[in-house]
């Protein structure tokens, strides 16, 4: 189950990475949501059971359109074009034996997608945002230097300007990577455990990425939270509780020190009702979380800090801390941002140094 979940997070990171890279070349990226999994498997040649072996089938995740969004072809046209193709090659068998994980099969079947209508409008709200990054690095440099922090120093503080800029980059803006990939309404909102941000009281904050979610988020959590709007006007950031949450963050993140030693840690609260109504959207919720994570990775680098994705967390502990009792909102991914400790045992080489 955990493996399946990590693959979905990774898919979100990959979607965002493609979207940023495409934008650097002047191209738009769109997630083609309407396609059924079976149709996508057919287009990619993954439905060739005989060439893949029954024990190790491949399944498609997502179809991305890169280019002019006006020219997005209907999946039927793609399939028609591929009707006469001849597939070459056979998949290698990955392992000599096969370990059965029935839960992976069941979540795969429960979240299988059939054809749906393409969502037409993005839930972008106008944000009058003019903040500039703390450091002005080129995209290529940020993308290449990005690494996960192995540990944080527990002392670095970031400025409020850097913090607000990072959060502003998590807001949806049309035709802007990585949010240009998603046409469905925003479904994920970060709950932030702030430890070391200058001029900002340590404690619990929530970034409400779409104003429509505010009443439901408020209702899901403890009634005594403050919900005090804080930060610049353009940022829908709410202060819920002043508190030193370092020990809580560490506990929630499977006792990992980086959650306490960071400048801030966060959990991504997903509108889980969407998945309860349309089970295949369970995957999309993880993707949205992964996209948020990739944005944080790059924005942290751009501000001179570093980030680390946290797939290992105790969701029940997070929900108990927030006072979430039902399934309307669920935390699906966590993240940490801080001052990285450089591990002297690691060497760094230029990308693509070894030419074939
Ligand atoms: C979905 C996901 C979950 C992760 N979970 C953790 C985690 O719980 N703890 C941790 O220290 N690092 C975690 N990481 C960081 C990975 O260990 C790291 O991304 C991986 O080692 C590759 O290194 P890189 O990000 O520097 O390229 C996670 C990364 C991803 C993408």
From TrEMBL:
Domain Nitroreductase as annotated: residue spans: 274-338
InterPro entries, per database record: Nitroreductase (IPR029479), Nitroreductase-like (IPR000415)
GO molecular function: oxidoreductase activity
SUPFAM superfamilies registered for this protein in UniProt: FMN-dependent nitroreductase-like
Top-level lineage group: Bacteria
Signal peptide interval: none
Pfam (any one): Nitroreductase
Entry protein name: Nitroreductase domain-containing protein
The species this protein was found in: Cupriavidus basilensis OR16
């Amino acid at each position: 189950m955990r493996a399946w979940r990590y693959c979905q997070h990774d898919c979100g990171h990959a979607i965002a990475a493609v979207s940023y890279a495409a934008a650097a070349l002047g191209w738009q990226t769109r997630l083609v949501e309407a396609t059924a999994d079976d149709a996508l498997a057919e287009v990619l040649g993954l439905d060739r059971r005989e060439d893949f072996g029954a024990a190790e089938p491949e399944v498609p995740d997502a179809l991305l359109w890169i280019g002019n969004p006006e020219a997005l072809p209907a999946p039927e046209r793609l399939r028609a074009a591929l009707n006469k193709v001849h597939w070459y090659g056979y998949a290698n068998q990955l392992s000599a034996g096969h370990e059965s994980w029935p839960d992976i099969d069941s979540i795969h079947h429960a979240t299988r997608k059939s054809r749906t209508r393409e969502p037409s409008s993005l839930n972008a709200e106008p944000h009058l945002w003019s903040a500039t990054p703390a450091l002005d690095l080129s995209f290529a440099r940020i993308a290449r230097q990005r690494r996960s922090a192995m540990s944080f120093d527990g002392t670095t503080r970031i400025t409020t300007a850097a913090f607000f800029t990072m959060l502003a980059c998590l807001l949806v803006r049309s035709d802007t990577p990585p949010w240009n990939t998603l046409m469905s309404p925003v479904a994920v909102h970060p709950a932030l455990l702030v430890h070391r941000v200058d001029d900002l009281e340590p404690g619990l904050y929530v970034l409400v990425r779409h104003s429509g979610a505010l009443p439901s988020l408020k209702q899901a959590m403890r009634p005594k939270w403050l919900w005090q709007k804080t930060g610049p006007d353009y940022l829908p950031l709410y202060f819920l509780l002043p508190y030193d949450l370092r020990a809580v963050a560490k506990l929630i993140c499977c006792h990992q020190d980086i959650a306490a030693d960071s400048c801030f840690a966060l959990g991504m609260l997903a509108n889980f009702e969407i998945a309860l109504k349309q089970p295949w959207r369970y995957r999309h919720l993880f993707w949205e979380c992964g996209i948020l994570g990739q944005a944080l990775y790059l924005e942290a680098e751009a501000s001179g800090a570093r980030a680390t994705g946290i797939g290992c967390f105790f969701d029940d502990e997070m929900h108990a801390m927030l006072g979430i009792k039902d399934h309307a909102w669920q935390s699906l991914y966590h993240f940490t941002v801080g001052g990285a400790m450089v591990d002297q045992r690691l060497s760094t080489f230029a990308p693509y140094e070894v030419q074939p």
